[in-house]
Design brief:
The protein is of the alpha/beta class. It contains 15 helices and 12 strands. It has 2 domains: 241 residues, Aspartate Aminotransferase, domain 2 (3-Layer(aba) Sandwich), CATH 3.40.640; 148 residues, Alpha-Beta Complex (Aspartate Aminotransferase, domain 1), CATH 3.90.1150.
Length: 402
């Protein structure tokens, strides 16, 4: 295992993206939005950098430069959504007859993509507990091309050993892909820990304000990135200029936002762990043993803004979800507002029930994405909802409480 990454080892350019832009007399302080779909050419055979915005665009290119800077890698490849990024990633690495090993605790859309889109095309997948490198190793086949893991996992917050998974994948001649959406490069840098590729839904914490969809893929493998750009050109899934511009504005405050949200999430997780009626709270700071060691080794100055907790039953979860007033019920994470999600019926509704149960996604599980509100305001809101759930033990009582 690599030594924990210190904040002191990261340059100001990494922590405050945008500082790498040259200061030129008269140039705008904020990246301009170039909304044009096409660009003028000097003549036939012109090789200008930007020719058509389905292939590249100045605003999109600036976002890709900044995202690459965040991970000390070449410019990232950005997409219109996180799932578009994953789709292009799989298209670039696997074909009919290949096999993928995927963590059983991942975003529901990833599971749907593998099971319902790629499997009929001849790409098989095995879902395993990615917190156990031995389980991943046992799932490897001669035709395994990649191992896909999300850490912390969605919504169980389980921690995977990135370096151990990289070793397993590399021994088999496969690549390790890590979904780092929950922590962003500010709190975790998978490429430094042995991962080959990192994927993000930039819609979440990176953009941070619920105004722009997006996805990105970063790697230090230039040939892979070139292949990915070619697939994006062919499939037309590039990030929009306006989406890129909005994401760039969000990144300007990303370090401040996610560290503040992480600190608040730790307070709320500790508070939830002491509440009657809550049967389980998932958050890295509450982890024990190997998971706790990994969290402190892999995370940089915080454990993220997502907490999940089990209210004990579907009725209790439903009551809490519909009783909160400050927290908003929404299928989303990563915004400046605190959001509450019921994974079993929302983000992971398409995941087979058996897999949900194995991943700890019970009917009573709720996922909390902590925003910028004071911790006390969030816990006060949750306390009222928990009290209402405590007095409602049947569907009829739930209706009466509401």
């Amino acid at each position: 295992m690599s030594s924990p990454v210190s904040l002191d080892s990261l340059s100001p350019d990494i922590l405050c993206p945008g500082l790498g832009r040259p200061s030129i007399d008269g140039h705008p302080a904020v990246t301009p939005l170039v909304q044009s779909t096409t660009f003028s050419r000097e003549g036939i055979g012109s090789t200008c950098e930007h020719q058509y915005s389905r292939v590249s665009n100045p605003t999109v290119a600036e976002l890709e430069r900044v995202l690459g800077e965040l991970e000390a890698s070449p410019p990232a490849v950005t997409f219109s959504t996180g799932l578009a990024a994953e789709t292009a990633l799989f298209l670039s690495l696997v074909r009919a007859g290949d096999h993928v090993v995927c963590g059983q605790s991942v975003y529901g859309g990833t599971t749907r993509l593998l099971r319902q889109i790629l499997e009929p095309l001849g790409v098989s997948s095995t879902f395993v507990d990615a917190t156990c490198p031995d389980a991943v190793a046992r799932a490897i086949r001669p035709n395994t091309r990649l191992v896909f893991a999300e850490t912390p996992a969605n919504p169980s917050l389980e921690i995977c050993d990135i370096q151990a998974l990289a070793n397993v994948a590399h021994v088999a001649g496969a690549k390790l892909v890590v979904d780092n959406t929950f922590l962003t490069p500010i709190l975790q840098r998978p490429l430094d820990l042995g991962a080959d590729i990192v994927v993000y839904s930039t819609t979440k914490f990176i953009e941070g304000h619920s105004v722009a969809l997006g996805g990105s893929v970063t790697s230090r493998d230039a040939a892979f990135l070139e292949r990915l750009r070619f697939i994006r050109k062919c499939t037309g899934a590039i990030q929009t200029p306006f989406g890129a511009w909005l994401t760039l504005q969000g990144i300007r405050t990303l370090p401040l936002r996610i560290r503040h949200q992480s600190a608040t999430a730790g307070v709320i997780a500790d508070w939830l762990s002491r509440q009657p009626g809550i049967t389980r709270v998932n958050y890295p700071s509450l982890a024990q043993g190997e998971a706790r060691r990994l969290a402190h080794a892999q995370h940089i100055g915080g454990h993220g803004a997502v907490v999940s907790f089990d209210a004990g039953s579907l009725d209790a979860a439903r009551t809490i979800a519909t009783s909160v007033t400050l927290c908003r019920l929404a299928e989303h994470v990563g915004s400046v507002e605190t959001l509450l999600t019921h994974p079993a019926t929302m983000t992971h509704a398409d995941v087979p029930r058996e897999q949900r149960v194995q991943a700890g996604i019970t009917d009573g599980l709720l996922r909390l994405s902590v925003g910028l509100e004071p911790a006390q305001a969030i816990t006060d809101d949750l306390a009222c909802a928990l009290a209402k759930a405590a007095c409602c033990s049947s569907p009829a009582e739930v209706a009466a409480c509401l």
